[in-house]
Amino acid sequence: MVGEPDLGKALAGAVYCQECCPEILDLKKTVFSNIDAVADDNVIIASSSSCIMPSLFTGHLAHKSQCIVAHPVNPPHYIPLVEIVPAPWTTQSTTDRTRAMMTKLGQSPVVLKKEVNGFILNRLQYALLMESWRIVEEGVCTPEDVDTAVKEGLGLRWSFMGPFETIDLNAPDGRYPPRRRPPSPPPSLPTRSA
């Protein structure tokens, strides 16, 4: 692998381009504009954004239908998840090609059906982080105990079984009906509404 300071030469014949700049919207717009100016009609133009929706920085581009977010999770050499987030104008072909490429590379892609702030991973992570802060602030436990509960409990369980698979373990017939919430939490757990 060698570096190429000329963006046009770097993208010549490329089938995939991955932007990895900081999460600054104006910077992403500039970088994508520069890529768009030299891109051909076949290259996938992907962003590593972890939370900025692609429509916010690709709508002005000539090749906007080839733009997509392919967010690798840090550290990507240990965590195979890649969140694929198409903009409203991203073609299905771009989405399918991106997913196929990530799968071929040994990653585990998930495709969002629509744009949403924070995508999937960060939304789940923020929910856990907010509850973690809450139970520490309420004096339930220390931050170290929260970290231990996640590392030695939920983290291990969730490494091979997702939350819906977990609730199926306690379902009356071994599986909750699709699109139905499990029963309410026990009375000892407060319920919160958004």
Note down, in words, how this protein is organized.
It is a single chain. With 194 residues, this protein is of the alpha/beta class. It has 2 domains: 7-111, 3-Layer(aba) Sandwich (Rossmann fold); 120-194, N-(1-d-carboxylethyl)-l-norvaline Dehydrogenase, domain 2, CATH 1.10.1040. Helices cover 39% and strands 12% of the residues. A 5-stranded mixed β-sheet has the order 1-2-3-4-5, with helices on both faces. The chain starts with 6 loop residues before the first helix and ends in a 25-residue tail after the last helix.
Summarize model confidence as the mean pLDDT.
Answer: 90
Q: State the fourth-level CATH superfamily of the largest domain.
A: NAD(P)-binding Rossmann-like Domain
Q: What is the CATH architecture term of the largest domain?
A: 3-Layer(aba) Sandwich
Q: What is the fold-level CATH name, i.e. the topology of the largest domain?
A: Rossmann fold
Number of domains in the coordinates? 2
Strand arrangement, largest sheet?
A: 1-2-3-4-5
- Amino-to-carboxy terminus distance: 49 Å
Radius of gyration from the alpha-carbon trace, in angstroms:
20 Å
